[in-house]
């Protein structure tokens, strides 16, 4: 741990989050002098008393140390866009579901001019990341009664029961999730990747170090400006790897003069690279949480389980197909039964539309790094109405499962969207009035060849036109895979680290 902020380093990693810790660990093991600058605290290794209980507790999502982002008035209702501000990043917050997606997702990245990212090339990295993140597979017998009821009843609409969702050639089905939980603890990337290398002298980790911007001279990154304890410092570096996540990496680039020139000039920022794709192409999988009244039998069964201890809110998931993607799958169904989110959400199942067509943006509003940016997801804004239609089909499929023999008595009557949104038209109105996110923002520093005017980084993570500057996190995904994004974020770290080491 670095109590004092070093003044120089070989490589600076901006953000000790999900991808950033993978990059830092891989570079450090290879002997590279590496400094991680994390805006939130570094709580130290696993076992340190400084780790907040909510970031460790794998039965619920983490809450403390949030960046505090939300939709502002860009959506009909104010939606929180939670992001962890602490070592581990969103791997401290997430539901620990580890999914991979489908081969078509990654083959499309490679086909768009990104060699090295095809499904077959990434497959060994998924295996390696799964091992290091200590991912284990739940068995059907371990599901809670609520999860088990959905898993069993999924067959009523033709969703086969699977052992795992993580087969890149697989299509639809319901399965217990693969999770990175060790003895009840959410096994974040700080534990998985940093702990084994924390003893290395040439790895330094500085918490409470908020990177304002990257310094660029003659087309080359030369270091960063960091805010710590209210003071601004310069850290010189041979190379900078920005791993701030899909909301924050574009902000760091924009403050550094890398982005859309009009936006930068309006804020008085000198343009060092004209890359209009910075902050654009923001997308997440729109999500709708359905809920039911529940039943006495289900309440009693869940209470018995909770009295015995272990009852995670989520640990089963389905991959389902809408009419837009009948050959593969384009929806997740997620049974969810939190006790801490009010009665309305007590008995829930969510639907996520995995291949959204709507695109939004992230834009800084000032030079102050603590000023919240404009995060405008433009959920459900695609002109064909594809995204809303997929959610509507998902709701209809979940309604069919809920109405199947045996399930009807388990779930009780539907509360949300409820009887007022029975037909397709009313359902679409409900969906449009209640857009929500699935916590998987991506795309804001998209990867692609230099010939693509919207691309921000090349296939190796290198920012186009700036030597010694890379981005490696969910922001570089050109399109979101049919997956939750935690494991793909780790794989991005593994992939870009190999590129960085190859060009050292
Ligand atoms: C509540 C929630 C639940 C989720 N559930 C799941 C799930 O069950 N399964 C799943 O697969 N995915 C889930 N996700 C999504 C997944 O966790 C994220 O997509 C992934 O962790 C993002 O990784 P990242 O490296 O891109 O960013 P992050 O992990 O967010 O890392 C970014 C890091 O950079 C730091 N940082 C940012 N800006 C700066 C700066 N300027 N200076 C210094 N440091 C900076 C941040 O503090 C953070 O530590 C969930 C996300 C959330 C929020």
Automatic annotation (TrEMBL):
Pfam families: GMC_oxred_C, GMC_oxred_N. One of its GO terms (molecular function) is oxidoreductase activity, acting on CH-OH group of donors. SUPFAM superfamilies: FAD-linked reductases, C-terminal domain (SSF54373), FAD/NAD(P)-binding domain (SSF51905). Residues 245-259 form the Glucose-methanol-choline oxidoreductase N-terminal domain. The keyword Acyltransferase does not apply. Gene3D superfamilies: 3.30.410.40, FAD/NAD(P)-binding domain (3.50.50.60). Substrate binds at residue 438. InterPro entries: FAD/NAD-bd_sf, GMC_OxRdtase, GMC_OxRdtase_N, GMC_OxRtase_C. FAD binds at residues 18-19, 211, 439-440. Keywords: FAD, Flavoprotein. Its cofactor is FAD. Belongs to the GMC oxidoreductase family. This is Putative glucose-methanol-choline oxidoreductase.
